[in-house]
Amino acid sequence: MDDCIFCKISSKQVPSKIVYEDDSVMAFYDIEPQAPVHIVIIPKKHIKSLDHIIEQDKNLVGYIFLCAKKIASELGLKNGYRIVNNCGKLGGQTVDHIHFHLLGGRQLQWPPG
Length: 113
Ligand code: 5GP
Ligand code: ZN
Known about the structure:
By secondary structure, this protein is an alpha+beta fold. It has helices at residues 5-10, 58-74, 88-91, and strands spanning 18-21, 25-29, 37-43, 82-84, 100-104. β1 (18-21) and β2 form a beta hairpin. Residues 5, 14, 16, 28-32, 40, 86, 92-95 line the site of guanosine-5'-monophosphate (5GP).
């Protein structure tokens, strides 16, 4: 997708501070961190939102959670962390390329706003 910022990050047209990358997934530091550790995890495949995943994406989405666990461990988040997916306008999604926030490094509150 030509005008998608996360596609540009995954193709390295736009720089980011990468923490993890393989053939199908990339993770990088959020430009506007909401916690001491705030990573954005994306599939390299452009999928608009969680609401747009299809049956054939199920392994990819599951694999992202495995990556999240590995990244959390590598970043030393041994006392816990949170994975967040904002989906659609009311879900607070601002970038239309599915992504998962990995937040940690402080006590996180519940429920979110
Ligand atoms: P959303 O609000 O869609 O759930 O999350 C989008 C996230 O992407 C936000 O936390 C925002 O700070 C982050 N973001 C937006 N543009 C960029 C960018 O160009 N680089 C990085 N590293 N993060 C970005
Ligand atoms: Zn994209």
